[in-house]
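Entry 14. Ran structure prediction on the chain below.
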Amino acid sequence: MTSTSADVEATTARGVSPRAASGAPVETDLGWALGVVFRRYAKASGAALDDVPGGPRGYQVLATVNSDGPKRQLDLAAQLGVDRTVMTYLLDDLEKAGLVQRQPDPADRRARLIVPTQQGSETLCDLERRLTATEDEVLGSLDDDERRSFRRLLQRVALKADAIDPLHNACLLADENVDPATT
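Output, structure tokens:
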């Protein structure tokens, strides 16, 4: 027997705890819901960022150096949880695409600052428009107030979860042989 979202809403509206009800539909499970929403967002945002060197990581680099200003390469890698060797290759690709530049750090001639180019800033604006469209598609069943509440609540939960169990190296999650529970 499959349950519709109307069935789930009716059960919840009556005050019946979906976990306590026998035969509760999978749609009431938090893990299932998070997985479905994440999978949809990951696919749609991946497609939106497909032409950016490094995909989501490339976007994060562009967004960070545009919002925070020039950053040392090692500081950027640490902030984004990217292995420094991986960051070097990512920056090479972003630089070849004309999106960032490495400039000498006036405070330390051995270090390089990562600076967005004009093209990089323009590309970021386009990427942000694409990601907004992606969010609109994924969160399309919510009105504007519900979206704001959802984002605020999700951020609060995420910040608490990250404080308890921070991800020290995002590169490990890309390795299929690594259990995410151990990172």
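Strands lie at 71-72, 100-105, 108-116. Will compare against last week's run tomorrow.
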